[in-house]
Write a structure and sequence with these properties.
Strand content: 15-25%
Shape: elongated
Number of helices: 8
Largest sheet: 8 strands, mixed
Pfam families: Mce4_CUP1 (PF11887), MlaD (PF02470)
GO biological process, one term: biological process involved in interaction with host
InterPro entries: Mce/MlaD, Mce_C, MlaD_Phospholipid_Transporter
Strand order of the largest sheet: 7-1-4-3-2-6-5-8
Protein name: Mammalian cell entry protein
Helix content: 40-55%
Length: about 350
């Protein structure tokens, strides 16, 4: 055999082998069902979605994106996405299409939510409008207002936070716990934690509005969390003013003194734990002694309250206007048939 012919045969064999390997790899990684139906869906934002992307139902690939084009509809620009879907699934009016993150590198896919498997041809929606679609979102929206916090974090922490948030909002991953753990990492070294958490909640709410999966539940959770946070943040400065206000502190000091804490010790710089009976100094407050006095005063007050019903029962009804006043030591017993009259009024003699 001539060397030139052998080289040609080797080259042809190598090319055929490479082509077959590519076809086999594509068939394994991205199998395409032969029985598919074409649809067109309109999105207000299709960022990151390209031709060849997956179309999935409950995480399983059932079609492909054919093309993504920009078109005008009712005076606004929309992204017209041509896609295919296996015929066993049908897009009906109750179906929703959402563009979701496939990975943090930016690749995305179309998720078909609530498709019908028992449909009639008349029920199919071949041209899906924006009312039935959820657009893509910019992952950087999660970090609006958090630039000072992110400057203290490592890239791994930031990537973990984004991954957990995207997984939860997309309906994947381990639920809410990993995302909350990432929020705890964000606020670990921050003094104003309330403001950071409120900012993260607002950003997540904005992102969740444009996503499917767990978004309806997430939006409700964020509303519940935001309600007390917003209320606390609106008056948090007032708490600080009150804590530093001399009028408030002097009133609190008088209240502590009346409860039972030693007056001299309340002017100390700090509290200490000492056995009851240890003298208070100008520098410290004997916390044990103060608590002991406060508890005793409280016990005395409760004991006094308990005596109120007894004293009330011993108080008789008020006498009539013409009735004589009662004697504290009893009446002086006069002989029978003997009365003392003064100006025609009967006089009662009391014991001394």
């Amino acid at each position: 055999m001539k060397p030139a012919a052998a080289v040609w045969r080797l080259g042809i064999l190598s090319a055929v082998t490479i082509a077959l390997f590519i076809l086999l790899a594509n068939a394994i990684t991205q199998p395409v069902a032969p029985n598919v139906r074409a649809y067109t869906a309109e999105f207000t934002d299709a960022s990151g979605l390209y031709a060849g992307a997956d179309v999935r139902v409950r995480g399983v690939r059932v079609g492909k994106v054919q093309s993504v084009e920009l078109k005008r509809r009712n005076g606004q620009s929309v992204a017209a996405v041509a896609l295919t879907l296996e015929r066993r699934f049908g897009i009906v009016p109750a179906t929703r299409l959402a563009i979701k993150y496939q990975s943090l590198t930016g690749s995305r896919y179309v998720d078909v939510v609530n498709p019908s498997e028992s449909y009639k041809d008349a029920e199919l929606v071949r041209n899906v409008s924006t009312a039935m679609t959820q657009p893509s979102f910019d992952v950087t929206a999660l970090f609006n207002g958090l630039q000072p916090v992110l400057a203290t974090l490592s890239p791994d922490d930031i990537n973990a936070f984004v991954a957990h948030a995207v997984d939860f909002l997309s309906g994947n991953g381990g639920g809410l716990a990993p995302m909350l753990d990432s929020i705890r990492t964000l606020t670990k070294f921050v003094s104003d934690r309330e403001q950071v958490v409120a900012t993260v909640m607002r950003n997540l709410s904005t992102v969740a509005d444009a996503m499917g999966g767990q978004s309806p539940h997430m939006i409700q959770i964020l509303e519940w969390i935001n309600r007390p946070l917003d209320a606390a943040l609106s008056v948090i400065k007032e708490f600080r003013k009150t804590a530093l206000n001399p009028d408030y502190m002097s009133a609190a000091e008088r209240l502590l003194e009346n409860i039972g804490f030693p007056s001299t010790g309340n002017h100390g710089d700090h509290f200490v734990m000492q056995p009851p009976g240890a003298p208070a100094t100008d520098q410290v407050t004997n916390l044990d002694e103060g608590l002991d006095r406060a508890i005793n005063n409280l016990d005395d007050f409760i004991s006094a309250i308990k005596l109120v019903p007894v004293m009330w029962d011993n108080i008789g009804p008020p006498p009539h206007a013409s009735a004589p006043l009662p004697c504290s030591h009893g009446h002086f017993q006069l002989p029978e048939q003997m009365d003392i009259l003064l100006n025609g009024q009967r006089v009662v003699l009391c014991k001394h």
